[in-house]
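Render this sequence as a predicted structure.
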Amino acid sequence: MAGVKGAAEEAEMLKAHGFWFATSANGDEYYVGTLNRLVWLYADGTWASDPRPPRAGMSLEEYLKETDDLAQV
């Protein structure tokens, strides 16, 4: 499943946590953050990241808050 830009609220939240939007050569859309963190938003409202969230079931907001601590090291 290819990533999408996501809702404006999601894009703003990612931007506030230091992510920027990118599109691959094959049209996949995703967000790139510090320490090579990647986040994909999907049309069905789900999301994925690399590295994976530290705990299963985390919301995107929880993931961003928790991984911000890692990015400041």
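Summary. The beta strands are 20-23, 29-32, 38-41, 47-50. The radius of gyration is 11 Å.
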